[in-house]
Fold each of these.
Amino acid sequence: MSNLIPGYKRHSIEEFSGESKRIRPANREKTTEKKTRGRVKIKIELIQDRQKRCTTFSKRKAGLMKKSHELATLTGSQFR
């Protein structure tokens, strides 16, 4: 049985419950552990699965089109 919430790939049920399982340091000093991964460099390679490749392409295309639309709006220019 999985603890993952349907529709959420990385979130478990425990993360959304009211209880926190983290133990706070007794001395209350700042910890050096990072909370997020930040931007992770991805290796550029061909995605072998055609369906995953098409999905990735359409998501990237949508993001680029959105950015170009915003840029065109700000500059008053047109794009195709």
Note: Helices lie at 13-16, 50-75.
Amino acid sequence: MGPSTMSALIILAVIGAMAVVRCVFSFLRPIITYFLLRHFLSKRADLKKAGDWAIVTGSTDGIGKAFAHELARSGLNVFLISRSTEKLMKVANEIESQFKVETKIFTADFTTVSYLYKIIKLLLLPRYRTWRVGTTYSLLPVDYLFKLPRVHAKGQC
């Protein structure tokens, strides 16, 4: 074999090795992401330092309910807020039986009552809040839409 053939073989070997590494990494990536990094990069241990209670709005369905379950799994007591008392009681019972934490419920419609955020602050004064209330934007007044970024970014009105 000549030097040019040897160089071509080395280049092909490097390309083949890179392809194998890429395939192995793409196979292991979900395992690394969901099992290893989840435990090493999780801040679950730090949540209790913020306080014993977390407030979750929109906590009867979707991402709000998922947040409530995850916070309870972390050992926080959960103050659940939503429009439906029946759904709130169901979620509260689920959380209390599954995670052995305390829950409180508060029925509120955030589209009609603007002072609720201030009342919630005074009720428990937790340092960890999750605002997950959903709404249909086509039905809201324009001035309310300008307040939304501030509520979601700072957790306050």
Note: Strands lie at 53-57, 77-82, 103-107, 128-130.
Amino acid sequence: MRQNKVTKIQYTKTREGVTLVEKTERTIIPTVIPENINAIDVTELDDEHQQEMSELYEEYAAYMNTHLKLAFSFENWLSHSKSVEYSPNWRTFRPDQTEEIA
């Protein structure tokens, strides 16, 4: 699966891992593909400094989220620069329930 490329998938959605809710074939454009865990390794810091780093990053993340909400959205970009008259249908697909179809 490649980011930003049209991809056909089979998606199986379950409730609490048991009850089948949805099994569909979809055509998607993956905008985020999780592969690795990005993290700050704080192993070498003592507990106090680990907690401080956590709080500082939490504050930074809140600032960035606020900033990004005010940024120019994909929908705005489409309407202003590409004259597209339809909107993207945003959905989240769990990787463990998604299989790429060749």
Note: The chain has one domain: 7-100.
Amino acid sequence: PKGEKDLSAEERLLHAIFGDKSREVRDTSLRVPHGGDGVVRDVKIFTRANGDELQSGVNMLVRVYIAQKRKIKVG
């Protein structure tokens, strides 16, 4: 475990708000690859509870659609 001195500003804030419960939190966010940017156009959530057919071992699937502007290239 990290000591109090090793905490980032976000971790110190979480520790101040929630106490020791925040130590179990990890950032598992997915990021757009470097050089990719855009606007989120749609988010679709598929779950077994809604009757969606998912692969075995998958309980929830989230698809994020991003609109990107690109320069037109030949080829």
Note: The first strand starts at residue 39 and ends at 47.
